[in-house]
């Protein structure tokens, strides 16, 4: 199964891309820190089902799925048909599209907090709209945020990297708290009494909510007059048609969806309680030319119909569980410092050293051995509806071979790491 792949075209184009593409990646997760530099392909040419082909014609089973959005599969017939059907009638016009109403009605049915909906193109812009709504509604400035909510200034101001161009005064209003650490949220509320406009978090990332974290957080927000926003950009339709909020039984005031909404077309939205959205309707400004672009709306409706009519959600959870159970059993049996963590639709490989710290070398070796054998991994392992039993069996064989090599590396000791990376960060 191991195979040295020819990546000539991919690497040559990547070298050229440096001359004309700023920063070279669309999403930070695509960066060279994520995909080990060297033999990892740099460009994907096409995809079908859960498989992708790089620029040099090499085929891979993909688990990165367009960085999350592909929940049904590449070139998925029902979505492609809906898009081409709409294409024949026009992509975009100057009035609100009837599809907005039809899709919004569908979303109302599925998403508990979705009394009203408004469409955007990216998760970042929908998050921005949610924060602006919360600030307008409460008249307060401070925001408590979770792990990641896109690239806009209000949220990136709380990161430790790439702070160029951010107004320093924005930083005082944004506070980061960790999932499940209710006491951290309480501290911020105590430090800024009556000043917190919103808490925005992902309803679930890797850990499950502990000790009624979400309901306690909701109570904390209510008690302090803050708006609770769930960022469902990743969990959205991947966890089910009602998002993680329906699954976990906690309805936020506002929510934001993106990535998986249209199986790869750019579509995101803010949705939320009528009393909040109606109250700020005449005050907030978030209008955008392509908000009612129709190919994405057609794709969004096709995705939701597939979720309604097929066992998409069950299959995504089942595939993820199968991967997680088997990988963790193999990793334990082989004694590797590797585990596959998280909820089944959104898994993350973790790699740790003898001291329990993140081990980049171990990760690179694992990634290297997987890509050589035709399994494409990114930051997250995203199962999709089109992964077949054969794909899963192949991937598990690859993971086992990669784990065995990682086991040898671990036994050889850290100083031998360079020898195990036949390529990589040296380049
Ligand atoms: C949880 C979450 N929120 C927001 C965003 C931003 O979405 P986008 O990249 O579409 O702007 C992302 C992107 O990865 C995300 O993971």
Question: Please, could you describe this protein's structure?
Answer:
It is a single chain. It contains 14 helices and 13 strands. The protein is α/β, with parallel strands linked by helices and 427 residues long. It folds into two domains: 8-74 and 311-420, Aspartate Aminotransferase, domain 1 (Alpha-Beta Complex), CATH 3.90.1150; 93-292, Type I PLP-dependent aspartate aminotransferase-like (Major domain) (Aspartate Aminotransferase, domain 2, 3-Layer(aba) Sandwich), CATH 3.40.640. It has a seven-stranded mixed sheet, with helices on both faces. Helix 4 packs across helix 9 and helix 12 packs across helix 13. The longest helix is centred in the C-terminal third of the chain and has 24 residues, at 389-412. The chain is globular, with a radius of gyration of 22 Å. The two termini are 25 Å apart. Mean pLDDT is 93; it is low at 423-427. It binds pyridoxal-5'-phosphate. Pyridoxal-5'-phosphate (PLP) binds next to helix 4.
The number of domains: 2
Helix content: 25-40%
CATH homologous superfamily classification of the largest domain: Type I PLP-dependent aspartate aminotransferase-like (Major domain)
Main sheet makeup: 7 strands, mixed
Strand fraction equals 5-15%
CATH topology of the largest domain: Aspartate Aminotransferase, domain 2
Average pLDDT score: 93
Overall number of strands: 13
Strand order of the largest sheet: 4-10-9-8-7-5-6
Hetero groups: pyridoxal-5'-phosphate
- Indicate the radius of gyration in whole angstroms: 22 Å
Q: What's the helix-strand series?
A: HEEEHHEHEHEHEHEHEEHHHEEHEHH
For the record, what CATH class of the largest domain applies? Alpha Beta
- Backbone structural class: alpha/beta
Stretches with pLDDT under 50, minimum 5 residues: 423-427
Distance between the termini: 25 Å
CATH architecture descriptor text of the largest domain: 3-Layer(aba) Sandwich
């Amino acid at each position: 199964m191991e195979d040295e792949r020819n990546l000539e075209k991919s690497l040559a184009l990547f070298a050229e891309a440096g001359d004309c593409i700023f920063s070279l990646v669309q999403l930070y997760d695509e960066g060279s820190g994520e995909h080990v530099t060297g033999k990892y392909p740099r460009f994907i040419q096409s995809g079908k089902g859960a498989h992708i082909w790089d620029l040099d014609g090499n085929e891979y089973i993909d688990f990165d799925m367009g960085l999350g959005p592909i929940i049904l599969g590449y070139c998925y017939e029902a979505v492609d048909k809906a898009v081409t059907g709409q294409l024949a009638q026009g992509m975009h016009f100057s009035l609100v599209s009837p599809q907005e109403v039809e899709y919004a009605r569908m979303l109302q049915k599925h998403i508990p907090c979705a009394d009203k909906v408004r469409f955007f193109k990216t998760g970042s812009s929908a998050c921005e709209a949610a924060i602006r709504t919360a600030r307008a509604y409460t008249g307060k400035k401070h925001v408590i945020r979770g792990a990641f909510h896109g690239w806009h200034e209000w949220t990136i101001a709380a990161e430790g990297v790439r702070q160029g161009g951010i107004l320093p005064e924005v930083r005082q209003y944004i506070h980061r708290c960790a999932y499940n650490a209710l006491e951290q949220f309480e501290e911020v509320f105590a430090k800024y009494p009556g000043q917190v406009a919103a808490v925005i978090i992902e309803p679930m990332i890797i850990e499950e909510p502990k000790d009624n974290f979400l309901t306690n957080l909701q109570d904390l927000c209510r008690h302090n007059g803050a708006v609770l926003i769930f960022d469902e950009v990743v969990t959205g339709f991947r966890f089910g048609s009602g998002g993680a909020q329906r699954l976990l039984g906690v309805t936020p005031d506002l929510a934001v969806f993106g990535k998986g909404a249209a199986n790869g077309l750019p579509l995101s939205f803010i949705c939320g309680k009528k009393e909040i959205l109606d109250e700020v309707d005449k005050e907030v400004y978030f209008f955008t030319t392509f908000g009612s672009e129709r190919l994405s709306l057609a794709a969004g409706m096709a995705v939701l119909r597939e979720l309604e009519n097929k066992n998409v959600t069950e299959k995504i959870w089942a595939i993820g569980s199968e991967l997680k159970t088997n990988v963790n059993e193999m990793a334990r049996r082989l004694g590797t410092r590797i585990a596959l963590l998280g909820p089944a639709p959104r898994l993350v490989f973790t790699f740790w050293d003898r001291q329990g710290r993140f081990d980049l070398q171990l990760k690179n070796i694992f990634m290297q051995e997987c890509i050589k054998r035709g399994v494409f991994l990114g930051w997250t392992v995203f199962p999709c509806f089109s992964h077949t039993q054969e794909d899963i069996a192949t991937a598990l064989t690859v993971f086992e071979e990669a784990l065995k090599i990682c086991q040898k590396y671990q036994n050889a000791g850290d100083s031998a790491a360079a020898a195990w990376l036949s390529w990589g960060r040296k380049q």
